[in-house]
Amino acid sequence: MKGSLYSGSRPSTPSHSSHQNSVSPPQEMVMEDVVDQAESVIKRWDVDHHEFSPVFSGNRKEAALLLEAVAGLQSAMHYYVNLTPNSHKLITAQKLMRIAIKRLEKEFYVILSSNRKNLDSESVSTHSSTSTLSDLFEDDISNSVEQTSDMAMADLKSIANCMIGSGYGKECVRIYTLIRRSIVDETLYYLGVDKLSHSKIQKMDWDLLETKIKSWLHALRVAVKTLFHGERILCDVVFSCSERISESTFAAISTDAAVTLFGFATNL
């Protein structure tokens, strides 16, 4: 069972000494069918056996089938753990889940890294946190930045919901934090925010210090009104299934940058 922060759980295989309870054949047949259907979908997207081609930017209905397959596997795994723990189908389901999560991790990373410009903090602030993948299936997708970012945010949200619900929230957050923290740091760099010690600031001549202060005031306005605000909204959208995960992820992304930004004023 995962910790309380990352909701969802990964069913584990009990020891072979566990007692196998009697179950109704019809229900077991349903679970077997769920695993078989999931296998037919997931193996098409096995990153270890097929050349990688993003499914979420290609066949959108196939992307939905992949997410549904993972949800079905999660239900089947809980069923087998509780009622037929020695079933070979449980082992199959666990293997398929690992394949699927590896694929979703890759998709999540690609969407984040390829949409750095589309998911800039200014445009993100205009979005709603209620968009879902299914909401966008019937849309005519144009080349506009707004629709591209809408789709990216909906995909990220759908993958995050799926991974967190399956007990892989930590892996999802790790990828998200890696990409978005680098964007925050890069933005502050281009805004001219440097890590300056108290002694270095005190040694500056007044003209240089005055220039630094003006630059810092501009960076402060952009960071507070746009950068941090946009990142918070994006976290809330992507991790809408868990307020605690959204808050902790935003803190992981922004804390170091905020310390650097406000550290300048502290060292004056």
TrEMBL record:
The keyword Oxidoreductase does not apply. GO terms for biological process: exocytosis; protein transport. Gene3D superfamilies: Exocyst complex component Exo70. It comes from the Eukaryota. Residues 1-27 are annotated as: Disordered. Residues 7-19 have a biased composition (Low complexity). InterPro entries: Cullin_repeat-like_dom_sf, Exo70, Exo70_C. Residues 214-265 form the Exocyst complex subunit Exo70 C-terminal domain. One of its GO terms (cellular component) is exocyst. The keyword Protein transport applies. GO terms for molecular function: phosphatidylinositol-4,5-bisphosphate binding. Keywords: Exocytosis, Protein transport, Transport. Component of the exocyst complex. PANTHER family: EXOCYST COMPLEX PROTEIN EXO70 (PTHR12542), EXOCYST SUBUNIT EXO70 FAMILY PROTEIN (PTHR12542:SF17). This is Exocyst subunit Exo70 family protein. It comes from Striga hermonthica.
